[in-house]
Design goal:
It contains 19 helices and no strands. By secondary structure, the protein is mostly helical.
Length: about 450
């Protein structure tokens, strides 16, 4: 159901809107987690490391996709908040035109970049094949992810966060079932994990398209809705491109980090991969609140409700801070049992060094989680009003810190230096976004705080 986010108590509206997104992200992370668990337990820790070092590369491409589609959704939210439904449908048509071209371009570039990217990262011989095989299949399925993301972002822009959740649950369950079939029983290795993800996403995207455009009359497009202009396309890309670049710039920093990590033994790479997957679960709530804030801010900005907009952001900051305390303590207390999910000593042998690398990362990163959690709220709030330059500069800040720190810290602090690369990037980006939010965010004639 489509919801108007310009009405109701801000904290309640944001929380109710964010809750399906949180559940959706949980399921999305679960099937990503299952990929790693099944590969680590039923193939080898080298396979786990090989899939792990692809995280930065896939985030580089998929983050760009998420940024573009999120930007398209924000523009749609502006028109919906202003109750300009003709422009809203034209915005949808323009978004689809953009995404068709994006699918062709990105798939071609991504597939051609696989070997050069892995060589740049210095992937070790014992994991190179696993990484190459996983990336080739994943990139060929890029169009299905773009299709799902554009529909999901448009629905969230119109206040519907439940429909994307239902299809994400369906996709997650299907992915897990295919993972078990392809990897455990058919013994397809990392290729099986990649095929499971691509097939599940494709089926989910097709079903989502069919359901959405048969269910919602407001979203049914006509021929004239696809007749766009370069100026109207630019209105969307003006928001989408900086958001996409922000994700990809951040991802490039992760690629540089993994390049530095590849100098360490494969056991450390496997441990780092396990910890990263666990950390991604802890980040679900702030990421989801960030998505909710971008759409909440977008609608209220379009409607001219500037005071209500600021009240909602402050409510999200408080909610995110409370969750941060719980997540940090939980990760620190249960670091070892959580890591054990990824490894079967009977299959991979001695896992003590992998445990050490994983738990150390979780202990140190948990101390700096407040910066990471607040970063998502400030960044999405600014993007929701179309202020995309400073979030982009925050991504550049993360990149610069990661590159410089990756060159210096591991040489002086070893594996601990690798961990510090990440947390220093969070701190630098968060401080920049905090200042930008205080300066750039529209206030209205009067500002107050109320849940």
């Amino acid at each position: 159901m489509i919801h108007d986010l310009t009405k109701g108590r801000p904290a309640s509206v944001i929380l109710l809107f964010a809750f399906p997104i949180i559940l959706g992200n949980i399921f999305q992370q679960v099937y990503s987690l299952v990929d790693s668990i099944i590969v680590g337990r039923y193939v080898s820790y080298q396979a786990l490391a090989g899939v792990g070092i692809t995280n930065g590369l896939t985030f580089f491409i998929f983050g760009f996709v998420l940024g573009i589609t999120s930007g398209l959704g924000i523009k749609t939210a502006h028109f919906f908040g202003a109750k300009d439904f003709v422009k809203m449908r034209q915005s949808l048509g323009t978004g689809f035109v953009i995404c068709i071209g994006l699918s062709i371009l990105l798939t071609t570039l991504a597939v051609l970049s696989i070997n050069p990217s892995l060589r740049f990262m210095g992937a070790a011989d014992d994991i190179y094949y696993y990484s190459q095989s996983y990336l080739r299949i994943t990139y060929f399925g890029l169009a299905s992810q773009i299709a799902y993301n554009v529909v999901a972002c448009i629905l969230r822009a119109l206040g519907d966060s439940k429909t994307p959740l239902l299809f994400l649950i369906f996709s997650s369950v299907l992915n897990i079932g295919l993972d078990i079939l392809f990897v455990k029983f058919l013994e397809w290795g990392v290729q099986g994990a990649a095929w499971a993800t691509v097939i599940a996403q494709l089926i989910s995207a097709v079903c989502c398209f069919i359901y959405v455009f048969s269910r919602y009359k407001e979203l049914r497009l006509h021929k004239e809705d696809f007749r766009t202009s370069w100026s109207f396309i630019w209105e969307h890309l003006r928001i989408g491109i900086p958001m996409a670049l922000q994700f990809s710039i951040t991802a490039f920093g992760v690629i540089v980090l993994y390049a530095a990590l590849n100098a360490f033994p494969t056991t450390y790479i496997a441990g780092f991969t396990s910890a990263s997957k666990i950390q991604s679960i802890g980040m679900l709530v702030p990421i989801s609140l960030g998505v909710a804030i971008a759409n909440y801010v977008g609608q209220n900005y379009g409607a001219g409700n500037l005071v209500r907009m600021r009240v909602g952001v402050n409510s999200a900051l408080i909610m995110s801070s409370c969750v941060c305390v719980v997540v940090s303590v939980t990760m620190a207390l249960f670091a070892t049992p959580l890591t054990s999910l990824f490894l079967d000593p009977d299959v991979v042998g001695d896992v003590s060094e992998i445990y050490l690398a994983s738990t150390r990362y979780l202990y140190i990163s948990a101390l700096f989680f407040p910066f990471l959690f607040l970063l998502f709220i400030y960044r999405n709030a600014l993007q929701g009003v179309g202020k995309t330059f400073m979030p982009l500069m925050a991504g550049v800040t993360e990149l610069v810190i990661r590159v410089v720190a990756s060159l210096i810290l591991p040489n002086h602090f070893g594996y601990n230096g690798i961990i510090l690369v990440d947390v220093l990037a969070w701190v630098g980006a968060c401080l920049l976004l905090f200042v930008s939010y205080r300066v750039q965010m529209p206030r209205g004639r009067k500002f107050y705080f109320r849940l």
